[in-house]
Give the backbone structure.
Amino acid sequence: MTNEFVLEAITREFPESVISSSEPYGMLTVEIKKDDIKKVIHYLKDSTLEINFLTDVCGIHYPETPEKEIGVIYHLHNMMTNFRIRLKIFMTRENVEVDSLTELYAGANWMERETFDFYGIKFKGHPDLRPILNMEDLGYHPMLKEYRLEDGTRTDKNDSMFGR
Amino acid sequence: MSDNKPVIKTDAPAPPGFEGEGFFATQLSSVIGMARKFSLWPLPFATSCCGIEFMATLNPTYDASRFGMERNSFSPRQADMLMVCGTISKKLGPVLKEVYTQMAEPKWVVAVGACASSGGIFDTYSVLQGIDKIIPVDVYVPGCPPRPEQIIEGVMQVQALAESESIRRRDMPEYQHLLDSYNISN
Amino acid sequence: MKDNSLSNILNQYDSKEQIDGQLYTLNLGPTHPATHGIFQNVLTMDGERILHAEQTVGYIHRAFEKISERRNFAQITTLTDRMNYCSAPINNLGWHMTVEKLLGIKVPKRVDYMRVILMELARIGDHLICNGVTGMDAGAITGLTYMFIERERIYDMYEQICGARMTTNMGRIGGFERDFTPKFHELLKDFLKTFPARFAEFGQLLERNRIFMDRTIGAGAISAERALSYGFTGPNLRATGVDYDVRVAQPYSSYEDFDFIIPVGTAGDTYDRFMVRQQEIWESLKIINQAYDNLPEGPFHADVPDFYLPEKADVYNKMEALIYHFKIVMGETDVPKGEVYHAVEGGNGELGFYLVSDGGRTPYRLHFRRPCFIYYQAYPEMITGAVISDAIVTMCSMNIIAGELDA
């Protein structure tokens, strides 16, 4: 099961969904259209490719490219043939909604909640989408690049001494 | 640096008193101080890595039970010493304050580790920069994590405090003022 | 999917029973003696049977991923320590391997074998805590106290390598900062000679103990299909019967040179998880013996002056070493752009690092695939219908470490 074989299978099934593909450091990385991601992952799970283990879901923020500002990155794995694939989708800041994978994978529940908590990406069909790691009254999605790391309300630290 | 740092005596002589055949008379406060000192029951509020070093302190190589800390009380009502080991986040702050108010007097607080003392290496939006923002602390044990020997030194400083403080510390006006500054009602 | 929400369960009891207090709400945590960290479960119980568990995590969220966007690669090693702090070397060395994959650095064979020895020692330490705590929460505290003495011997070995006991910050990108000291060889030989007998005693205490088996067999069982759907990896998955181990599936750091088996359970319950970890300690000892007997000669770091700090004597005497030192510390070296995902077998499962680099000295995005976070979601499913004592023993045997859960 090589990268070319899997890429060819995906492009044959979903010719309009694949935007681009690459192989950084040997792992097949395919960029998919945002609305088709659930169909593609369902196909990968149920077809003979048997890529049926969801390793990870995470988000990413590229403020320099407004039409591809917020991204969601899925890592999937076929344990029998030891094949890994990375799928990426991108969306604009105003339209941060994507289908949830909780019907396909039970483990996607918390992974998507974490992504929502950090980036504000809404997952349609998620049973319980609320912040998981941060406090509910934090009020913003902290991993976006415009927010600072330190606590802005601290009064006891003198920033001029520490060169921030 | 203040001058009223507690003095640790490792040879533990008997307190000054009057001795005779079959009896020893001394001040009640010395006896109570000695009894408190050798039977501090800790409440291990262990949250992260310092908690594992605290577990190492309790176990045979460093053996905290020779200091009287045999019974770890997870119920605050029965504990004397609150040992906060590990990072306290802002989400956990109210829980910590609740546990502290539920403890009965006399009580001492030890901040074990850099995260409990001052936020440690985590200068972020979600970590409380030191537990002394919400509860009064008696002893700070720095380190990331502190070695068990350092944790024992912190406990020995609490022992020196327990031995030498006034018996009814809770009635002293400075103590009341301290608790009021944290909005903790007694 | 069955609707496990609280309102659905409450609807099955008519209102009179609810008012009479038949359903009891118990708050397990966040600070609780049995939890290996701080996370909260609010249990709705009918007598002693658990009907529903509502989880809250995030009580120790330290924003690792945001911090790592501000730290250079060597500084992030100290953060990775604090995720699964019971087996810190595995996190450190896994991170170094990720960066080496990004930079295209190939380390010498000796470094690989040294890394294997330290990672397996860390795995032994992690499993000793987990099994000791499982015994303690079933009532047998003796096992934990004896096994902590063995952990102290492992700490002595870490001190020889890097100077710290628990949060080790071990190694450098490209290898190690110093070779194994003679004292380390002595300690390791002594450990390999005397640990098996003491560990066998611990096994005799609990493995065929009637009370322990009655407590743990059948507690917190999960099937292999549900475990795979949740994304389980590591000993929890192997206890259900799936033999997936990252060391064998995608060997890193010369693991393919070593001969070891993957222990697998059948029922996916607490007893199987305990026994899988017991057996994994024996396998780790086998690996350490093989690695130590065949330790190849050679340099203890890769020859990458762009990323590996030169010797201090050279820095003070030679011009090139001074320039390299300056460039590395000030972050002037060029890092390739790209994204890489590398997984290692941590104490709890597949620990993954997803690193996106934009050429700067700090990562653009670093995401940790933390096994504890992913399998803790399954906890309510595992304890629904069980009694409270089973719930406690299940939680301990899953080895949930709060630092890794919240990161």
Remarks:
- Chain C has two domains: 1-54, 62-404.
- The first strand of chain C starts at residue 23 and ends at 28.
- The mean pLDDT of chain C is 89.
